[in-house]
Design brief:
The chain is an alpha/beta fold and 276 residues long. The protein has eleven helices and eight strands. Strands 1-2-3-4-5-6-7-8 form an eight-stranded parallel β-barrel, surrounded by eight helices. Helix 3 runs parallel beside helix 4 and helix 10 crosses helix 11. The longest helix has 20 residues. The radius of gyration is 18 Å and the shape is globular. The two termini are 22 Å apart. 39% of the residues are buried.
Length: 276
């Protein structure tokens, strides 16, 4: 059982708990992106096992009336084992998703080419039923967006959380913010919908809504479970909002990252430990 201190950021250890959380969130007009926790497997066995969990999760979603989809990390389904393992498992997941959208998460810069290459293949094969994430801090992202602009599917723009080499990524917060705004404008102008604004930054969300008003391009807002949830509920009254919801037995390291990355998260964890 996940302790209350972690349940703010993780929706349980089992698919049943995650789906129940999804049902509750749907009632508040927020859609859910489910992610089974796990990454960086170096043997095929665990990668195949997690792929099987996603196949069963897709069956559960498609038997329900839930507004939910899934998001998969490449290293979770075999990229660190070999590109062929990653392709085999992602193809199985995409093939099984009849009416459920499948996101491919983006990891560090060493995975970008393999991730985008497979996304392009799968989203064309599945009539746009696959999405991918790109990171504004990477200097290559403008060229990647130009490549993705005419493809079906969706693209999630995030600022980027990995500690990338300075020759490949912008390191200053102001420069990353400027790149994020630049890429948002490009996407709203050049994309035919399918834009996912993956940010908790009120300034970026406000800019996206302004661009939507200007260009009329369809978009959605995506935020993490446990972060600015009041804002998520408010935004859902007017815009399409998706919450990224992790679950599974490997919750400890994920919770630690969430607790440490923002001062308010750390305060929340400290208060919970102290019982205040």
């Amino acid at each position: 059982m996940i302790p209350p201190i972690a349940s703010r950021f993780v929706a349980g250890e089992t698919p049943a708990e995650a789906l129940e959380y999804t049902r509750d969130l749907n009632q508040r007009n927020v859609n859910v992106i489910l992610n089974l926790l796990g990454e960086h497997y170096h043997e095929r066995g665990p990668a195949d096992e997690d792929a099987e969990v996603y196949l069963r999760l897709l069956e559960d979603i498609e038997r329900s009336d839930l507004s939910a989809c899934v998001s998969v990390k490449p290293s979770q389904v075999g990229l660190d084992v070999g590109t062929h393992v990653y392709r085999d498992n992602m193809e199985r997941i995409a093939d099984a998703a009849d009416d459920t959208f499948v996101w491919i998460d983006m990891e560090d810069h060493t995975t970008t080419d393999a991730t985008l290459d497979l996304f392009e293949q799968l989203t064309l094969e599945h009539d746009g039923g696959v999405g991918v994430c790109v990171q504004a801090n990477l200097k290559r992202t403008k060229e990647d967006l130009e490549r993705l602009a005419d493809l079906p599917g969706k693209v999630r723009l995030v600022k980027g959380a990995y500690d990338e080499p300075p020759e490949l990524a912008y390191k200053e917060k102001e420069r990353v913010n400027a790149a994020y705004r630049e890429y948002l404008e490009f996407m709203f102008e050049e994309f035919d919908g399918g834009i996912a604004v993956g940010s908790h930054d009120p300034a970026m969300i406000e800019y996206a809504t302004e661009l939507h008003d200007e260009y009329g391009t369809d978009f959605e807002i995506q935020m993490l479970m446990g972060v600015r949830e009041d804002a998520q509920m408010e935004l859902a009254e007017e815009y399409e909002v998706w919450q990224y919801v992790p679950y599974g037995g490997k919750w400890m390291s994920y919770f630690y990252r969430r607790a440490m990355e923002r001062k308010e998260n750390l305060l929340f964890a400290a208060r919970a430990v102290l019982g205040r």
